[in-house]
Amino acid sequence: SRMWAMLGPYCDRINIYDGAEVFLSGWQNTPQAAADLFAANWCQEEVCNGGFHQFFMNSTGVLGPEAAVGFERIGMKKTSALIRRALAFFGEDYPRARDVRVRKLDEYARAHPESPKPFDAVDDEFYVLLRSEANGWPNAADSYAIRHGG
Predict the structure, then answer these.
(1) Angle at 13 between CA 16 and CA 64, to 5 degrees
(2) Which residue did the predictor score with more confidence, 149 or 16?
(3) Is the pLDDT of residue 150 over 80?
């Protein structure tokens, strides 16, 4: 796909596994369009695999804010707004540190044993938008890559 042609050379430059500082360093040294696609793609892969709960529990959660921006720039504004709604669960100052996100999710699960995952409704909306908005994710991502020289 055009998205992967643009994204491929940068996949190893952005490290999501060693904390915010390392992630942001690689992020800032990646062309904007490739960085947008990187964040949006990781987000959709994780959410499609295990919902926003998985996205935030895993290392990928470090790029939550960038995923929202990426989807917006790609032209999927409703999807971006939905991601921002999920990010808001963590409060105004989004925690890039995985242990902080995990702790907040665990606290929520203990407080709501009958419904331990706070993102079920958002997940369902995300799946619908991912297929429908801007001709669906694969088309929107490829179109964005093409528009930016990919």
Answers:
(1) 35
(2) 16
(3) no
DSSP 93-147: S---SHHHHHHHHHHHHHH-TTS--TTHHHHHHHHHHHHHGGG-HHHHHHHHHHH
Evaluate whether 47 touches 84 at the Cβ level (below 8 Å): no
Both structure tokens of 84: 């921002």
**CA separation for the pair 19, 118 (Å, rounded):** 24
The CA distances from residue 27 to 12, 56, 78, 132, in Å, are 11, 18, 24, 28
Which residues, in sequence order, are CB contacts of 51 under 8 Å at separation 6+?
117, 119, 120, 123
Residue 13, CB half-sphere, CA atoms under 13 Å: how many? 15
Q: How many helices (H) and strands (E) does the chain have?
A: 8, 0
Torsion on CA atoms 107, 110, 112, 116, rounded to nearest 10: 80
